[in-house]
Protein: Short-subunit dehydrogenase
Amino acid sequence: MDINKSLIVVTGASSGIGAQTARLLAHAGSHVVLVARNAEAIESIAIELREQGLQATAVAADLGRHEDAARMAQYVLERIGVPDAIVNNAGAGRFLRIEETDPAEAEEMMAAPYFAAFFTTRVFIEPMLVRGTGVVLMVNSPVSTMPWPGAVGYASARFALKGFTEALRQDLRGTGLVVSSVTPTRVNSPYFDNNPGAAEKIPKAEALLGSTTPDAVAHSILSTLERERRDVHLPWRWAMMAPIARAFPRPVAYVTARTGAQRP
Structure:
């Protein structure tokens, strides 16, 4: 797709990958719609971009709630137009064992990323299908392919997002719409500062795959949209390991279990 003059919705756009992706797409000529729960943060980024002569609109919404997603979509469709692409980046959740996970928090972890991606895609998909073009992109985690101990709710939500990605791709086959995913390894972002102890639960085997930055992920998202690529992994060591993890899940599960968080 041609990024220039495209309308692109970016969820989870208040910080990290989402914020950097919105900035990069706006500088590439897109009209970006920044969506997140934090209204002040996304409006600040939108103002920053507009002051540079770029096109940006902020719409606050809790995308884990269908009514919020529907309200956001109505605003975008009526005032701006039909998106050319959706970047489903919204996601949250702590690394917790099952007995440490409150049921309400488990629901929140499933709400974003899974329901946020499902609802956001659902509210825009019909006009996109009528047009017959567009890209729906999911930002996921390696834990969706190689789960590790000590993060059961987080991993389950990412598995759900991966399932949605693959099922949606099959569902939209032949429509002209493309379903893509970008899966980075550990991203150097405020997440680990805000979640003490999370970094220590990442298996040493996964840590060997390297880390990346919000800017690098944003560039990968832009490239994936432009080329309408299927599934992209970064950095390069994870890109090499991902097909091995899919082909040999049991040995990989053994390694992540042995090098991950151990029960006392």
User: Anything to note?
Assistant: The CA atoms of residues 144 and 156 lie 8 Å apart. The two ends are 51 Å apart (CA to CA). Strands lie at 7-11, 31-36, 55-60, 85-88, 134-139, 177-184, 186-187, 211-212, 231-234.
